[in-house]
Amino acid sequence: MIPIFVAFLVVVSSALGPVLPLPSLPDSGHQPLANRTLNTDKDIQKLRRVDAYLKKINKPASPDGDIIDCVPSHLQPAFDHPELRGQKPLDPPARPRGHNSTEAGSESFQLWIDTGESCPKGTVPIRRTTEKDILRTSSITRYGRRRRHVRRDSTGSGHEHAVVFENGDQYYGAKASLNVWAPRVTNTYEFSLSQIWIISGSFDNDLNTIEAGWQVSPELYGDNLPRFFTYWTSDAYHTTGCYNLLCSGFVQINNKIAIGAAISPRSSYNGRQFDIGLMVWKDPKHGHWWLEFGSGLLVGYWPTFLFSHLRSHANMVQFGGEIVNTRSSGFHTSTQMGSGHFAREGFRKAAYFRNLQTVDWDNSLVPLKNLRLLSDHSNCYDIRQGRNNAWGTYFYYGGPGRNVRCP
Question: Annotated region Disordered: where (predicted)?
């Protein structure tokens, strides 16, 4: 069981509405009000006001132990960037043609809002980074910027993939639905994720990627819950980019989704399946890359100036799973990918992506034309593709990691 911190929503900035100052009491050595002797009805009234105010701002604990700050949109980390300083978030663009969006304002995809909490209009929910988060990391300077690799750069890095990909064309986005699991991760410095990659450039020094999906990362979050995440880089993960909102880059516009917060509900083996929709596409008017999550919830965008190659288009799209294998015990990790079961087990047992599509130059969703499959170590994690009328192009993927055929 993970520890539950005293978690609450904090509304940052009085700009969200006037907060009446509490009348001050005579100085008594800074003793807390609750510990003071209440001599008058006036003191009791003040204590009640303090108690009511605290109950108002200190919300019930999130089941995942997170503290969520409701930050005014124009004060989020993105606007620390020199090219965004003093600006405000842009209005949403037109979605790609062929996309059916149901803006599901009442849907709950994350644990922190299961209690009915949300952030006020004009703010964005940001998961607070704590001292414990920083102390878990192997390098403070690389916190939130863990070196990660896409498929073609995985040899010898400890990163293993089971993915489908397509290249050879100009891509302006990608879309899919994927089911959410809670795979076991065996140590703090490994992770397991499932995501979409938007890729351009070479795989050496100038790789541009935009990434979104769910991940289990004990180092980053301190638990084994699947969490909604984003990532970006413009120099092959060397110095630019980060997870979520841990650097200036991604601009969030949504007050219902906290990037980095735990996803709920989750799929269960041979039981109910829960999947989420993800779509990334390039706004034809301004050139920024937008992200949609769930059933039509616009999360925000990556400004085009963050990138070099992705200022125009992507030359590859990729879908699937990735794990890190540190071999910390001298053999292959038992960190699971997806559900922890192989693709051949199929529906309700293996993890899947369905309804795979890309976005073309005309801002239209189109089927994939030349999809290819790759598994770095198919005895550890594998992948199988299919197509039908209900799911369009789909695939199952994943595995348990270490087993008799994966020593």
Answer: 78-106
The CA angle 226-230-232, to the nearest 5 degrees, is 145
Angle at 387 between CA 384 and CA 391, to 5 degrees: 105
Q: How confident is the model at residue 1 (pLDDT cuts 50, 70, 90)?
A: very low
Helices (H), 37-163: 41-57, 131-136
| Residue 135 neighbours by CB distance under 10 Å | 10
Catalytic residue among 160, 190, 292, 322: 322
pLDDT per residue over 121-148, tens digit each? 999 999 999 888 888 887 777 788 765 5
pLDDT score for 34 = 46
Residue from 160, 211, 219, 292 carrying the catalytic annotation = 211
The pLDDT confidence band at residue 21, using thresholds 50, 70 and 90, is: very low
Give residue for tokens 């092959």.
236
Is 345 considered catalytic here?
no
Maximal CA-CA distance, the chain: 79
Mean pLDDT of 3-15: 37
CATH number belonging to the domain at 108-398, selected among 2.60.120.200, 2.40.400.10, 3.30.565.10, 3.30.160.140: 2.60.120.200
Interval 185-229: pLDDT, tens: 999 999 999 999 999 998 878 999 999 999 999 999 999 999 999
Question: Reduced to 3 states, what is the DSSP secondary structure of residue 312?
Answer: coil
What's the confidence (pLDDT) of residue 102?
A: 54
What count of other Cβ atoms lies within 10 Å of the Cβ of residue 37?
7
Q: Please indicate whether residue 322 is annotated as part of the active site.
A: yes
Q: Report domain extents, the chain.
A: 108-398
